[in-house]
Specification:
single chain; 264 residues; alpha/beta; Rossmann fold; 2 domains; 4-stranded mixed sheet; 12 helices; 42% helix
């Protein structure tokens, strides 16, 4: 249940369209459901603006089915991350309504249309094509959170002219997610060229001393471009939620006072 659904329920109680017992029944699953192996946080959307997201890696398909079923019964949108093809096939045998995106490795279900933010699209940037799966996880997360996004792929520092040709898009974006492996230099370059928030995602792409993403992580953490924010290795989901929080907080800020009010 999200804020709008709760408001509608309370308005229907106030008008008499729904009785007290009906409202209690509608709210009976709050604040969480206990499935023994999982406790599903149904209050997440009320607190943060988006439902709990299921991390699929390490879970048995039947556990994912149980969690998803309970969330769907509660009329919540569903996003499951880090689901391999075999697990996705097993889950979809029980819940065929779920949509699987193999590149992003996500399962999703929309109970209701997702209202998009009014901001300009967020830019999701990759250094190379090998970073695209992490970018697609970020993009799918943004989509399920109602944040518009645009792809700027394969613009790494080995051919910096490719990035310079997309600067207008990056400069307009309210936030930019920059995804890179190898030495992880791209977020520093982007952070030095634009003024908006930059969320850096190191990936586990690279040869030996790339150390499965640690070299890129260390490079991003020590970026000489001030203010670049860094999430964990391969964590496209985390970067997308960081941007979602940022945009929601910005949208909730009161409008600036008029010139007359400021001059009074």
């Amino acid at each position: 249940m999200n804020t709008e659904e709760l408001r509608l329920l309370l308005e229907r109680v106030q008008s008499g369209a729904v009785g007290i017992d009906g409202a209690v029944s509608a709210l009976s699953h709050l604040p969480f459901s206990d499935l023994d192996y999982a406790k599903i946080d149904h209050h997440r959307a009320l607190r943060q603006g988006f439902p709990e997201v299921i991390f699929g890696e390490g879970k048995q398909p039947q556990q994912i089915v149980g969690i998803v079923t309970r969330m769907m019964d509660a009329s919540e949108n569903v996003l499951v991350t880090r689901v391999n093809a075999a697990a996705a096939e097993a889950v979809r045998e029980s819940i065929p309504a779920l949509e699987y995106r193999p590149l992003a490795r996500t399962l999703s279900f929309q109970h209701a249309p997702i209202r998009e933010t009014e901001a300009e699209p967020v830019a999701v940037v990759t250094a190379g094509t090998s970073d695209v799966p992490v970018a697609e996880e970020a993009l799918e997360t943004l989509r399920m959170c109602g944040v518009r996004a645009t792809r700027v792929f394969d613009v790494g520092v080995a051919g910096i002219h490719r990035l310079l040709g997309r600067l207008e898009i990056l400069s307009r974006a309210p936030a930019v997610i920059v995804i890179a492996g190898m030495e992880g230099a791209l977020p520093s370059v982007v952070g030095g060229l634009i003024g908006g928030p930059v969320i850096a995602v190191p990936t586990s792409i690279g040869y030996g001393t790339a150390l499965s993403g640690f070299t890129a992580l260390f490079g991003m953490l020590t970026s000489c471009a001030s203010g670049v924010t860094v999430v964990n290795i391969d964590n496209g989901f985390g970067a997308a939620l960081a941007v979602t929080r940022l945009l929601r907080a910005r949208a909730q800020q009161p409008a600036h006072a008029s010139h007359e009010e400021r001059s009074a």
